[in-house]
């Protein structure tokens, strides 16, 4: 019967000094202009529909 084992290492043994972790993990080139483009995809505040649903949910809570 073959036994498989995984060697254990601790976090301080992993050398990430010269590695871009985001690029390495997801292939995302995190140049400054790429990051700004990505951030523009997110809305800073929720839409009116979501806000109203949240307000209704809070008001209907019977605490």
Question: How would you characterize the overall build of this protein?
Answer:
By secondary structure, the chain is mainly alpha-helical. The protein has a domain at about 20-60. Helix content is about 40%, strand content about 0%. It has three helices and no strands. The chain starts with 20 loop residues before the first helix and ends with a helix.
Topology summary:
Elements: H1 21-26, H2 32-39, H3 48-59
Supply the helix-strand structural class: mainly alpha
Can you count the helices? Answer: 3
Quaternary organisation: single chain
- Arithmetic mean pLDDT: 77
Q: How much of the polypeptide forms β-strand, as a percent range?
A: under 5%
- What percent of the residues sit in helical stretches (DSSP H or I)? 40-55%
Calculate Rg over CA atoms: 23 Å
Helix-strand pattern:
HHH
Give the overall form: flat
**Which residue ranges are poorly predicted, with pLDDT under 50 across at least 5 consecutive positions?**
none
Distance between the termini: 60 Å
Largest sheet: none
Q: How many strand segments?
A: 0
């Amino acid at each position: 019967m073959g036994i498989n084992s995984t060697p254990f290492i601790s976090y301080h043994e992993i050398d990430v000094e010269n590695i871009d972790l985001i690029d390495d993990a997801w292939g995302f080139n995190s140049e400054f202009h790429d990051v700004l483009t990505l951030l523009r995809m997110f809305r800073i505040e929720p839409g009116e529909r979501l806000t109203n649903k949240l307000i209704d949910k809070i008001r209907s809570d019977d605490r």
